[in-house]
Write a structure and sequence with these properties.
The chain is mainly beta. It is 0% helix and 49% strand. It contains no helices and eleven strands. Strands 2, 4, 5, 6, 9, 10 and 11 form a seven-stranded mixed sheet that branches. Strands 1-3-8-7 form a four-stranded antiparallel sheet, with no helix packed on it. The radius of gyration is 13 Å and the shape is globular. The chain starts with a strand and ends with a strand.
Length: 126
């Protein structure tokens, strides 16, 4: 079992930045072999893909809506994955979830992920 815990959410003004962190615990020996992803879910909307990274960090993929503004990264030595969010917009408001993939790749589909965190709220508002 792999547990994931997100942190770093909060209230930020439009144009601001936040850095989300996701810490893995439990069976962390598998963390470095898994692709990792970030998803988000706004009220009354389905959970949507934000960003993903391969096991080595060598390849990343982003949703078009965040490309150029968000950056995903990971530190396998610390069993952590990060999401740097810049130039935030009100439409980025959502609960953000960290997820561990069932394989080493970077995938955009919810079904490719085995483990999920509880989420952290990001609110972008003036």
């Amino acid at each position: 079992q792999l547990q994931l815990r997100e942190s770093g959410g909060g209230l930020v003004q439009p144009g601001g930045s936040l850095r989300l962190s996701c810490a893995a615990s439990g069976r962390t020996f598998s963390f470095s072999s898994r692709g990792m992803g970030w998803f988000r879910q706004a009220p009354r909307k389905e959970r949507e893909f934000v960003a993903a990274i391969t096991w080595s960090g060598g390849y990343t993929v982003y949703a078009d809506s965040v490309k150029g503004r968000f950056t995903i990264s990971r530190d396998n030595a610390k069993n952590m994955v990060f999401l740097q969010m810049n130039s935030l917009k009100p439409e980025d408001t959502a609960v953000y979830y960290c997820a561990a993939g069932s394989t080493s790749g970077a995938y955009t589909g919810v079904r490719n992920y085995d483990y999920w965190g509880q989420g952290t709220q990001v609110t972008v508002s003036s």
